Each structure stands twice: as structure tokens, then as C-alpha cells.
Amino acid sequence: MNLNQNKIKDISIVICGAAGQGIKTVENLLVHNFNNSGYHVFSTKEYMSRVRGGTNSVSIRVSSQKVAALKNHIDILLPLHSKALNHLEKRISSETIVIGDREKICKECPPQVKKFIDTPLADMAEDIGGKIFINIIAAGIITGVLRFNLDQIKKDVKDFFSQKEKQIVERNIQAVSQGYSYGKDFSDKQDISFDLKPSSDIKKQVLINGAEAVGFGALAGGCDFLSSYPMSPSTGVLVFISQHAHEFEVVAEQAEDEISAINMALGASYAGARSLVTTSGGGFALMGEGISLAGMIETPIVVHVAQRPGPATGLPTRTEQGDLELVMHTGHGEFPRVILAPGKLEDAFSLTQKAFDLADKYQIPVFILTDQFFMDSYTNIPAPDFQSIQIKKHIIKTQKDYKRSLITRDGISPRGIPGYGEGLVGVDSDEHDEYSHITEDLDLRTKMVEKRLKKMEKIKGDAIPPELIGPKNYKNLIMGWGSTFYVIKEALEILKLKKTAFLHFKQVFPLPNETKTYLKKADQIVMAENNATSQFGKLIKLETGIEINKKILKYSGLAFSVEEMAEKINHLLKQEE
Amino acid sequence: MKKNTYDMGDIDVAWCPGCGNYSIIKSLKHALVELGIPPKDLVIVSGIGQAAKIPHYFKTHFFNGLHGRALPPATAIKAVNPQLTVIAESGDGDMYGEGGNHFVHAIRRNPDITNIIHNNMIYGLTKGQASPTSQFGFKTPVQTKGVILEPFNPLTLAISQNASFVARAFAGDVEETKEIIKKAIQHKGYALVDIFQPCVTFNKVNTFKWFKDNTAYVDDSYDPGDRKAAFEKALETHPLPLGVIYTSPKKNTYEQNTGLYVKDKNPLVFRNQKRSQKLLQLINRF
After folding, report:
1. Within 10 Å of residue B89's Cβ, how many Cβ atoms?
2. Handedness of CA A265, A270, A272, A274 (dihedral sign)
3. Shortest alpha-carbon distance between residue B25 and chain A (Å)
4. In 3-state terms, what secondary structure has residue A8?
5. Which helix (H) or strand (E) holds A253?
6. Which residues of A touch B62 (CB under 8 A)?
7. What's the alpha-carbon Rg for chain A, to the nearest Å?
8. Residues 432 to 471 of A: which have CB under 8 A from any B CB?
């Protein structure tokens, strides 16, 4: 039995069970162990919208190279209840090693299950002190099968339970050690070996998820006010910043509803704070009027929208890139905005940080568009460079006759805040004069509309260019935006197509100036999006006039897997390469 | 401070001649002058409606936001800069109808702001429909057979949620209203001032005379510190009570409860935070 038949340099591990069975504990322990052992690690989860029960799974990849996409294939599966194997039937192959108590987990095993480490997990756990140790034994078995360092996993267990009593820590170390030797024995007997090489760079890296990357970016961007209403999958950002609010001197308020959240954030921003709201589609829809207000009163605001499948409540805990058009068009009336969509955790950090600067500089709403897949996925990345951070506040000390809505050549009125300088600072949701007092002077109205829209010229000049991966003299161009970065990249690495490149957009609106040039160079363009109607494709058509007919779309609520992306690209480009 | 400190001079005002808003703005301006609060320390936050136009007739900082949404920005402005005096002011439709949820939760948060509501029991700007405080049976072009909803009682609601200051005034009494507003502004914490006001154009029932006949000030022996008695007082309708109805002693304000002003009194927005070191320490825990 050899997991490495195809010289796979990464291993795919899946843990599947009910909510409340401790999947997260195993995930947490394993990803930290893999990280601490010097491997690239990635984990992503799919789960049901319930607190207990159901069937959820976590997919972890451990690799010698950077991987950050969902892989369909499973090398090692840990089912924690009897429905797990059926739930994952399509992903299990004859190569999949299943760890568990065969009697309990697999009375009627799917026919493709060939490799079973029949383990009396429950009995082993009872011997140590109760069923609660099952997960830790299982984590031990996985690290044992992989022949990772025993001392390291023991240390990780100790760290993981550092807040608990000494006796509990010791029992957990006992559990992981027993599991480890069980797994290693199996691996030795079956002659299982792996082609994983640790890298010394990893030790300097940090293991975070999308929510934390956005949160770090916000703190680095100077965010000192956050008001939001909890909504999956955006809540992670609210939780992260709230937990560090005191340390970083941030007002973090759970508002009574999303309408309050956006209006609070705008109030704080008017007074000089750097405000953030985090939400998902339904909550964002409620903020619509507030977004329009931000446009009218030219008050900076950063809005993080973590997408999930709609319409309405949709699939609360699943993923989709279905709200680009919503974010594009939310807010009545005409006003400028910027939409950023990170594809890597590094981008989530730097773009969120940048969003605060753009919002302040142009006094506009700036959106960070992520999704459930991105929010809930962990991977290790180089620690962001915090030393070079400089927060430039675009705020002036006001003079006596200050005009908050002054008409200027570039449309940007110098921004004053109440209590800083001699001037009076007003903002008004009505059309207004330069002092922001209500007006129905229609000539002035025309000038004010032009002033607000004028800012778009400079905003376009600041657009972040798309990233081209692959040959510069491409014939075929695969396009994607936001969270699909790694899955498209890896699919193309597998396919090894010589004339095909990948163009990834991390700023989706306004489109970077070079967009059309990139598109015109290609004979064939394929748009890959995690939605049903190719929303970014429609935006490209609108802005460049170029229609993209070849599309790879997925809207089941799950992220693309590397295998399906590769297969779909291959299918569409077969004739061309 | 000059009596006309807050006046805008000769400007076009969108209120009807004889509107109660003129009396309320006079009471408010006089209260601010007597308290010695300069315009550069004051922010008026309003929503939408005739009452909500008040900051445009005022020399002050202002945030004239969305319909029903004055309280969330007012709370936030105070939280990031407690040195400012913040007044959230709008009509009954705006604060109790469209913004009802924010009204409830602003009371719970207890920011140190003054919440002034022009309560004329009708919608003026949309031309005469029922408001949350319209009386049962009140006929309008929409409520053709009369209002069939129980009128909203802001005082009992506020007292039930232990609002830190609850008062009611009558626009016709400029002096008394000014005194009530002064107490509200001086109060540390959320202060509700519901001001009865006739709508001379659309409300032909609850007129100046009607309010005169149907209201009465609480007397000097009245103790606003007794919550149960205050609740009973607020339930009274014949006559409707005027004055400071309830004050809740020693409640911390929202700004205090954030914990951000314990060590450092400097407003959050004026702090020049250096975060590089802290961020480095935090990321090393990951």
C-alpha cells in the first residue's frame, strides 16, 4: 500500500462527523501540528446550519508546496459517525485509508473502501478515561500513519490544552501517544510511505484563516470602530476584532440590526474614526440605504461582505460568489465605489488595510468581497510586514468658514471633523450646498453630482492591476476573481498547458485599466466563477464590450475542487491546446 | 455667550408659519447658550421629516442622516469623541416609527446624548398620515375610519427599559421646555425629551388649545427617582404629564462602558495609535 504512487507531494485528510463531535478540535490540533512540523497546510470546511448533529466535514491538506484549494481526493479519512462514509461517497476511492471502528462506522461500507484501519477507538478512549478522548487518539493515529514527529504532536497537545488541569493534559498526551503508535505500526506493517519534505521557512510563517486575515488587515489599516450584526459567514471578523478591541482601542459594537450597524459606522467615520462593518448578503441588503448615504455625505466606510448562497436565507453556511452585482449596485443614486476581492490570505490582509486608505482618500464606500470558503479556510502564510505600516489620515484642521462639501477640481472636498479646528462640519443626506445645507437649487445639484462622480477618475488611476500567472504570450486566458485564485492556479499546474495563462482580479470594480489589453491578446477566454450567471463576466462585457462565452460556473454551495476545475478547463480548451 | 450665537441669520425656513418647531428651536438655542456650550462643541444629528431639518437652521456641526436613523450615528459620534455634546433630534414618525428599534437599543446602550422628539401625533412632510403617537380613532386620508392601533407611549417604554432620563415638554411653553432641555443635556447618559407640538396644517384635533387643556406639569413634590411611581405617572392620560418624569441614578454611560476612556481621556479619534508592535505580538500568537 503506497499513498505515493503518483508522487503526490501532498496528502489530503478528511474528518467527518456531526456538529458537536469535536471535528474542530482535531482540525485545530492537526493543522497546528503540520504547521509546527514545517509543512504547508490548508484546511477548509463544509458544514450544516445547525449547532448540534448533522454531517460536517473538514478537509486538510499537508504538503511540501503551497496548496490552498479544496482537493476532492481523500488519502486519509476519519469518519466520526456512521453517516460520514455515505456523505463523502463521491470523494472516497480505493486509495482512501479509512480510520475507525469498522463495526460502528461502516456496517455497510461503500464498495470502493478497500483500506480500513479497523481501530477500537471507543475502547481505547474508555481505557484512558472516556469517549472524550476519541478525537485525540484519532489525531494521534493520523500523525502516526504519516510518521511525523511524536514529540511534536505531544507538545502540540500540551499547548492545545494549556488552560486545562494537569491531569487532563496528561491524559490527552497519553491518548495522542497511543493513537500515534497504533498509526505508526499500521504504516510500518503496510509499508506506507510519503514524499513530504518539511521546509524551514514554514516555522516563520503564521497559520490563520480568512476572517483573521481580514481582521488583521483592518487593525493594520487603523480601524478603530466596528459595528455589525452577526451573520454567517462574516461573523469571524466581528469576533476577531471584538476579542482584540481593548488592546487595539477599537469600539466594537454588536448593533441591534444591520441598519443600525452601517449608520453607526458612518457616524463614527463622520467624527473621524476609521469604520468597518462586516456582513453577508442578507444583512448587506439591509444596509443599502446606508451605503447610499455614504455616497451622498462622502463619508469613508469599509464594508466587508462575506458571500453565501442566496436568494434570501439561501444556504447560510455554504459558499458562493453570488453577490458581486449586489455590491456593485447597492445604494440608490449615482456615486463612486471600489470593490476589492482577495484571492490569497496575504491579499485579504493587504487589501483590507488598503481599503481604509482608499475610503479615506476618496471619501467613498470600499468593499472587501470574500465568501464562506475564504473566511473558513486556514493556511500558513509569511507573517505580514507590520513595521512598514503607515496610516495616512486624510483629515484637515478646519478654518472658520469651512465648507465640508466644497466643490474642487478633483471632486475631493478636504475632510474636516467636528472638534478639530474652528470650522463647523456638516453632512446631509439631502442634496446640499458646499456647507452641506439642504438645497433645491437644481444648478447646484448638477454641480454636486458632477463633483461626486469626478472622484472616479483618480480612483481608476489607483486601481490594483490583475495578476497574470503563466506564459505572457498566451493563447488562452482563464479568468477568475476573489477566492478562486488557488483552485484555478493549481488546476493549471496539473494540466501543464503551454499556451494558457490565468488572469486573477483582486480589484473587480472599477476594472483596472489594463483589463481590455489582457483580454484582447487572448484567442480564447474562459471565465470561472462560483455563481450561476457569471456576474463578473457580465461586468467585463459592460466595461470592455468583450463577451466571454466559455464559462465554468458552480453554484451548489460548495467551492470548486482542484480536480473538477482541471477537468472543466481541460474540457473547454481541449481543442485549442 | 451671545443669545444669537446659534442663529443662522436670514435664511429660508421650510416650516409652516405658526409651526411648533419655531418654539422648540428657540428653547433649544436658549438652553445651549445658557449652558455655555459653543457651536464647535455641539453636533446635532437628525433623520428625515420637518423636525429633522432643524440642524439647517442652526450654527453647529450636524449630521442630517437617513429617516429613522439619527440615534445610531449619534451614539457612535459620542463614543469616538466624548468631548462633543451630541443631540439626536427628529419627529415622532422618525424616532418612534421608522427608528423604533434604534430607540429601544439606544436606551439600553445609554450613550451620553440628548434625544429630542418633536411629537405632533401626525406625519407632516408626507401630508397628514397617522404617526405612531396618533390617538386611537384619529382620522386621516389613509386611516379613513380612524387609527386602529394603540398609540405609542415613549415614556412608559423608556421607563420600562430603565432609560436614564425621561422627560416630556410642551412646545407652547418656551421657558419650561428650555429648562427641561437644559436638565437633559446636563444629565450624564441617554436623555429622552418628548416634546408635544401642534401641527397647525394637518392635525386639527391635537391643537395648541388641546395640549393646553390636556397636559399638566408634575408638581414640586414629585420624585422622578421612583421608577414604579414614574411608570404610573407615565401611564396617565387625563391629563398627560409634563416635566422630568424619571431619572435613573448612577448608570454608567456607553462611552464609559466601552472601557476605552479609563486610562486615556483623549477622544479615540485624536489618539495617534502606533500599532506595529502590538500587531507583531498578536500575530506571533498564531
Report:
1. 28
2. positive
3. 17
4. coil
5. strand A251-254
6. 424, 426-428, 436
7. 26
8. 436-438
- Check if A498 contacts B (Cβ < 8 Å): no
Give the separation between CA A553 and CA A560, rounded to whole angstroms.
Answer: 9
ipTM above 0.95, yes or no: yes
pLDDT, one tens digit per residue, over B150-176 is 999 999 999 999 999 999 999 999 999
Query: If you ran DSSP here, which 8-state letter would residue A410 be given?
Result: T
The residues, any chain, with a CB within 8 Å of residue A170's CB and separated by 6 or more, are: none
Domains and CATH numbers, chain B: 21-283 (3.40.50.970)
| Domains of chain A, earliest start first | 10-198 (3.40.920.10), 207-382 (3.40.50.970), 395-462 (no CATH), 467-573 (3.40.50.920)
**CA neighbor of B63 nearest in space, from A278, A269, A225, A223:** A269
B207 at A interface, C-beta within 8 A: no
Closest CA to A45 of A67, A61, A65: A61
Cell of A97: 485509508
Is A430's Cβ below 8 Å from some Cβ in B?
A: yes
The arithmetic mean of pLDDT across residues A481-496, rounded, is: 97
For residue A267 the three cell numbers come to: 457616524
Query: A10 is written with which cell numbers?
Result: 501532498
- Looking at the complex, does the CB of residue A406 fall below 8 Å from at least one CB of chain B? no
pLDDT digits (tens, 9 = 90+) for A276-297: 999 999 999 999 999 999 999 9
Averaged pLDDT for residues A221-225: 97
**Residue range A392-403: average pLDDT?**
96
Are the CB atoms for A23 and A17 separated by under 8 Å? Answer: yes
* C-alpha distances out from residue A370 to A280, A351, A482, A507, A508, Å: 9, 11, 7, 12, 12
Whether B75 sits inside 8 A of A251 (CB atoms) is no
Q: Are A212 and B286 within 8 A, CB to CB?
A: yes
How far apart are the C-alpha atoms of A319 and A280, rounded to whole Å? 11
**HSE-CB for B240 with a 13 A CA cutoff:** 20
Contact A427 B101 (CB under 8 A): no
Please give the sequence-ordered ranges of beta strands (E in DSSP) within A327-364, or none if there are none: 338-340
Rounded Cα distance between A76 and B32, Å, is 72
Amino acid (one-letter) located at A56: N
Q: How far apart are CA A87 and CA A84, in angstroms?
A: 5
Q: How is B109-170 classified by DSSP, letter by letter?
A: H--S-EEEEEE-SS-TTTTS---TTPPTT---SSSTT---SPPP-HHHHHHHTT-SEEEEEE
Residue B77 makes CB contacts below 8 A (sequence gap 6+) with A267, A268, A270, A271, A418, B43, B45, B63, B84, B86
Q: Which residue of A has its CA nearest to B43?
A: A418
Q: In the block, which residue shows the cell 496610516?
A: A391
- Tell me, what amino acid is at A44? T
Asked if residues A132 and A195 have their Cβ atoms less than 8 Å apart, the reply is no
Percentage of chain A modeled with pLDDT above 70: 98
CA distance linking residue B90 with residue B116, whole number of Å: 7
Yes or no: say if A241 and A409 are a contact pair by the CB < 8 Å rule: no
Judged by phi (left if over 0) then psi (alpha if -120 to 50, else beta), residue A141 lies in: alpha
CA angle A211, A509, A568 (to 5 degrees): 75
Cα separation of A264 and A279, whole Å? 14
Q: Of all residues in chain A, what percent carry a pLDDT higher than 90?
A: 86
Provide the sign of the torsion angle of the four alpha carbons B29, B35, B37, B38, taken in this order. positive
Count residue pairs from A and B with Cβ separation < 8 A. Answer: 183
Q: What percent of chain B has pLDDT over 70?
A: 100
Closest CA–CA distance from residue B146 to any residue of chain A (Å): 31
- Grid cell at residue A227: 459595528
